[in-house]
Amino acid sequence: MAKKKAIKGTWTKADLAKLKKLFPSTATAQIAKALGRGLDATKKKASRMGLSKSKKYLKTLGRS
């Protein structure tokens, strides 16, 4: 039997768990690439989930 293809735009539980784990301390572009998603889609999903970058990560970027 053929493997079911994920519907475009559908986030799997594994994708969501990875996003939640990586988002606070990893560049969003890197996360998007790792998930095979667009940067905007990744940003929007993180925002809808209420995720934010950690203060420690922002400090490494010169922001606080």
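(ticket continues) Second input and output from the same batch:
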Amino acid sequence: MVDIKGLAEKTVRQAMKLGATHCDVMVADAKYVSAEIEKGSIKAASMLFDPGVAVRVFMQGSQGFSSCTGHDAKAVCRAVELAVSHAKAGTRDPDFRDLPYKSPGGRASGLFEKRLASTSVDEIVSMAIALADKAGDDKRIVGVNASVNVGTGTYALANSNGISLSQRLSSFELGAEAVARSGDKMFSGMDGLWSRRLDRAALGRVGESAKEHALLGLRQVKIPTGDRPVVMDPLAFGFILSSAIGGGVNAESIQRKRSYLTGKLNQVIGSDGLTVIDDPTIEWGPGSYAFDGEGTPARKTLIVDGGLLRSYLYDSYTAGKDCVESTGNSSRGSSLWSFRHVPSISSSNLVVTPGDSTLKEMVRETSKGVYLRVTFDSPNLATGEFSGLMMESFRIDKGELGPSIRQSTIGIGVVDMLSRIDMIGKDPRESFGVRTPAVRVSKARIAGSG
């Protein structure tokens, strides 16, 4: 077995001998097991071992990057030579300051579960079948898609400033979609799970939820265009927020003036009840880590505090450019790291502080509105405008949930959306890298076809 921590340290020394002024190396040893069911049949099942090395070097601020698959000494040496060559051929960057130095902290529990490391393809296939069976357990369900993905990895990071760290990460993800049909009406429902921990009971919960929402959508109605209150499910709000906040506060986008949040630090961007934290220390959180992709210890960052924008998210480069500390948001991937790409800024686990309402109370207190459960559209981060297809949405009439809404979209500026939040739920869940409850937006433009 390769000593990946030792390999990372050795590779840094090789790069420095070739003339690099700064260097960091990430060594990965990962395994992925997955199974996918499409329209009731097994589409794919696989186990992939994915070891590799990422080499990033700097010369007078000019960056060079290269990677190789595997841990073979010749391949690693070639990657080092290529990275140094790219840095020499690049342009000097006066904004580059330094790479991180070793510092205390960076403790996080619930990053790795041993049971996932020994999961076989047969076990994953059995889980996918069980998930699909649950989602399709009704004669009105005419199609089911389901997937189960498990990943485990050990990662070592070393740099020229003396950092030498390692951590183990695991990932467990489920997804299910059920398609229901009654006469000429069809509707699909979906759900998912994102965690670092094995949760077999979730197979039933996720499958049942996808089926129930597919069946619920068979009652359909068209609505006229107009302004309405919108109750957003954690699935919808989480997906929107992962981009609207996670991408919007990216310091690189801010410095390039490519974000709608540029220049809005310490200004109001949301209602006084909205607080959002980036927290990579959450136990079993899908984006949690002990240290980020550059070795900066994990730490919480208050982004939105009672509606006020308090911080952007930084890596070491953008932090040096703004003369602030890195927030520890250099990313090498999502739940598991990749050696194939240059590190970039990303949120870890965005957390919306819960309120005191239930989803049922939000619906009950909405006379005439919309319940948005699923959208897969993201805001325009340059302008802050959001226009999205409401893939799973339902009419709210006199405080009761009604039929699903056909052919409708939602349009609203992100700052307006966050500022108009007048109810926040008390039951959060993980969705798309965001831990959030449901929220109610007092008014948004709904473009219907009725």
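Agent notes: The longest helix spans residues 73-89. The chain has two domains: 4-216, 219-450. Closing as not reproducible unless the customer responds.
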